[in-house]
Design a protein that fits this description.
This protein is of the alpha/beta class and 427 residues long. The protein has 17 helices and 12 strands.
């Protein structure tokens, strides 16, 4: 456990320093190749959990400290240990003892004594400390204050449930490849393998617990793909028909690209600015035995890649704050800043304008984000409509939005992540 605490706290520190958690963890695996799969899983779980509940844990830690810490590495170690004490089943004495042993790697004098005192004090006063922490928004919801304020203003009836949903473990949902099987047939196959699952929507199943994909029956043969239930709405909404010329403008890692091709036989171009990520699209196409034209290019620089022939369908799954998928990526809470949102809005606005020029008359463009911030979603589309008289919004079949939320805005819940959809047609 000693090494696990050290490496988890190092990963958390890297995220707070601006690094993506997956990148931070990959660096740890490269630096420590001797780690077992079980150790890697433990480090990953603790890192995710500490970042998920970091704001709450920081509020608790502030109550336990007589003065600010001089060594930031001690702060991360204490947060990791507090997470373990509050949210894991590991023996408290082992967590405390191992954290004390980690003091040798901390530069602050008398770190061992401080660690021991802080953690044992938490165990003695846990309920009172957590109750006091809950008096503040950050301590109650474990998000940055600006994030809480934004959701409270935009979703006064739903913001608390949204914040709480973002702190849950995400559902593990599979998309059924309709070319290979049906939902009911695959549910029966899972039952044969002793894997508990439930039906979600028309073509999705959610497993009772997450599994490595190699343990999923038929995964290697292309029977299913891992994809959130909300993300699975994109391809059907676009209403693509056999023979159409289509563009997935931000394709990687390929979930929506492959779903489109499972639904219809298309002349599909899958575009992404990142050639490395585009390789994931190719791998998914191969596994599902589907075909598309892959292009590594900037979607805005149409002169560099577009052949001048309009597309009848365009999927614009644009870069965004990812505020709707924070439970899958809790590092977003630490990486995202209030000032990032206007920058995303400008990027989205520019991309929408570029792609609109490529759409055929009568064609449809589906604008989608994994955000719940309205500036990136309903307000973005409203602004687009003021600048494009030839655009109209079409109704969304099968997308149920809650009262008090904009049309097309899905809020995170037990079944799916937070997503936004707007279907635009060129007149």
């Amino acid at each position: 456990m000693l090494e696990i605490q050290q490496l988890a706290s190092a990963a958390v520190a890297a995220v707070v320093g601006g690094r993506n958690l997956n990148v931070a963890l990959a660096a740890q695996w490269q630096k420590h190749p001797q780690l077992t799969s079980q150790q890697r899983a433990a480090i990953t779980d603790i890192s995710y959990g500490t970042l998920r509940f970091g704001a709450q844990l920081e509020t608790v830690l502030a109550q336990l400290l007589a003065k600010p810490l001089r060594d930031e590495s001690l702060r991360w170690l204490l947060l990791v240990a507090l997470y373990q004490l509050q949210y894991t089943r590991a023996a408290p004495y082992a967590i405390v003892d191992n954290a004390v042993r980690c003091a040798a790697h901390v530069g602050e004098p008398q770190a061992a004594g401080l660690i021991n005192a802080v953690l044992r004090n938490f165990l003695r006063r846990r309920e009172a400390l957590l109750a006091k922490a809950a008096h503040s928004d950050a301590g109650r919801y474990s998000y940055p204050q600006w994030w809480i304020d934004k959701l409270r203003a935009q979703y006064p009836r739903h913001f608390a449930a949204m914040l709480e949903a973002g702190n849950l473990h995400p559902p593990f949902t599979l998309r059924i490849n309709r070319r290979r099987t049906t939902r009911d047939e695959y549910l029966a196959l899972l039952a044969q393998h002793g894997i508990a699952a439930t039906a979600v929507g028309a073509e999705a199943v959610t497993l009772a617990r997450a599994l490595p994909v190699e343990r999923l029956p038929g995964f290697a043969d292309g029977m299913v793909s891992v994809q959130d239930a909300a993300a699975q709405l994109a391809a059907p909404l676009l209403d693509a028909q056999d023979g159409m010329r289509a563009l997935d403008a931000c394709a990687a890692p390929g979930g929506k690209t492959t779903h489109l091709l499972e639904i219809a036989s298309l002349e599909l171009t899958a575009l992404d600015s990142d050639a490395t990520r585009l390789e994931r699209v190719r791998q998914n196409l191969e596994r599902l035995r589907l075909d598309a034209r892959l292009l590594a290019a900037d979607a805005n620089d149409t002169a560099a890649w577009w052949d001048g022939k309009p597309f009848e369908r365009i999927l614009a799954d644009v870069s965004c704050s990812a505020s709707g998928v924070v439970r899958r990526h809790p590092d977003i809470k630490w990486l995202r800043r209030r000032g990032d949102i206007p920058q995303f809005v400008l990027q989205q606005q520019r991309l929408l304008g570029s792609l609109w020029r490529l759409l055929a008359s009568g064609g449809k463009l589906l604008y989608t984000t994994c955000s719940v911030f309205q500036e990136e979603n309903s307000l973005q589309v409203a602004e687009f409509l003021t600048r494009h008289a030839d655009a109209r919004v079409l109704p969304l079949c099968g997308v149920k939005t809650l009262d008090g939320t904009p049309e097309g805005q899905l809020l995170p819940d037990n079944e799916h992540d937070g997503f936004y959809y707007a279907l635009l047609q060129k007149m």
